[in-house]
Design brief:
- By secondary structure, the protein is α+β, with helices and mostly antiparallel strands.
- It contains 7 helices and 20 strands.
- It has helices spanning 97-101, 110-119, 153-164, 196-201, 261-271, 280-293, 309-323; strands spanning 3-7, 10-14, 35-39, 50-53, 60-64, 67-72, 77-82, 87-92, 129-131, 133-138, 141-146, 167-170, 174-179, 182-187, 192-195, 208-209, 216-219, 234-242, 256-258, 297-303.
- An 8-stranded mixed sheet has the order 1-2-3-8-7-6-5-4, with helices on one face. It has a 6-stranded mixed sheet with strand order 12-10-11-18-20-19, with helices on both faces. A 3-stranded antiparallel sheet has the order 9-13-14, with helices on one face.
- Helix 3 (153-164) packs across helix 7 and helix 5 (261-271) crosses helix 6.
- It is globular and about 60 Å long.
């Protein structure tokens, strides 16, 4: 039996459930654009130069002649990704066989790691540019919240949806491409994940996900967010970061600054993620996508622990209203 899920503007088929993706009903075989995820019991030894990630991250990638090895540390598995990026095979990792025999430390479920660590970056093998950003829909178009893991994309995205009526399409990843000279952004289609404390604060509930040190739950999203959205222009990009200095100014949105074109392009480039960061194709595509993002409104948002997420989202909405 093959389970079928939406993955960006394609489908992914797998004999194992991928619970962090939205499942879809199907009566067709995988097409040439669709992704087939196969599971093998044959251990392999991944080899090659490091081309993305770090060995102490949730994923690191080794380049091979005909594709890449995506290693998922602490899960015991490695994934072969050919250059086409559509026929993936999961193997036990020879270097991590001990993980299969004993779990001395809790680790993130391998399927969750596949979705968040690998599949979110997979479009880089298709010639597109994956982005580590939440994607929301407003009446005027799409707004992105970009930033590293744990910066608050999910919490702020949920609050913008619940307090200001925006629609949260994905809280962690989307993909950008240029079609007909226009910037096109598509959400990954993953389930929304929130830190347990943030979910409790918003009175949201869902199944607890294993392997997250800060505790995360999977929450339901609006039905309208489950369908592949229609094309809309991208109208704003907010780059999220933490300010280590404690701020005493709570009555102003001065911690949000608009970026000029040069800094907007530079900052947008840092949002891009991929499976082979040394690839000439990926670097070229990233440059062109970042240049397109530089043409829209970009803001740097540097906030600290003294500011509540509710106050931050109110300021985001106010600044957005000023430009529209």
């Amino acid at each position: 039996m093959l389970y079928c899920y939406r993955l960006f503007d394609r489908h992914i088929f797998s004999s194992h459930e991928l619970k962090l993706l939205h499942r879809v009903t199907h009566d067709i075989e995988p097409g040439h654009r669709d992704v087939l995820l196969e599971w093998s019991s044959d251990p392999v030894l991944p080899e090659g130069p490091l081309c993305a990630g770090r060995e102490n991250w949730g994923i690191f990638v080794l380049r091979a002649a005909e594709g890449v090895w995506a290693v998922l540390p602490r899960t015991g598995f490695v994934v072969w990704v050919p250059k086409c990026g559509t026929r993936l095979t999961v193997h036990p990792d020879v270097n991590q066989l001990a993980v299969h025999e004993t779990m001395a430390l809790p680790c993130r479920d391998v399927v969750n790691s596949l979705v968040t660590g690998l599949l979110s970056r997979l479009p880089s093998m298709w010639g597109d540019v994956p982005l580590h950003a939440a994607l929301l829909k407003t009446p005027e178009g799409y707004v992105l919240l970009a930033g590293m893991s744990g910066i608050g994309k999910s919490t702020l995205g949920q609050l913008l949806a619940r307090r200001h009526g925006w629609i949260l399409l994905d809280d962690d990843a989307c993909v950008a491409s240029i079609t007909g000279g226009e910037l096109k952004v598509i959400p990954m289609g993953g389930m929304t994940r929130l830190r347990a404390d943030a979910a409790n604060r918003m009175q949201l509930s869902g199944p607890l996900l294993s392997g997250y040190a800060d505790g995360k739950v999977m929450v339901q999203v609006e039905q309208s967010a489950l369908c592949l959205p229609e094309w809309r222009p991208v109208v704003a990009l907010f780059h999220l970061s933490r300010n280590n200095e404690h701020s005493t100014n709570h009555s102003s949105n001065s911690y949000i600054s608009r970026l000029d074109t040069v800094n907007a392009v530079t900052q947008a480039a840092t949002t891009a993620i991929g499976l082979d960061r040394e690839s000439f194709q990926w670097r070229t595509n990233r440059f062109h996508v970042a240049a397109q993002f530089g043409k829209i409104a970009n803001f740097l948002l540097r906030y600290d622990q003294s500011q509540t997420p509710e106050a931050v989202t109110d300021d985001i909405e106010n600044i957005y209203a000023e430009i529209h």
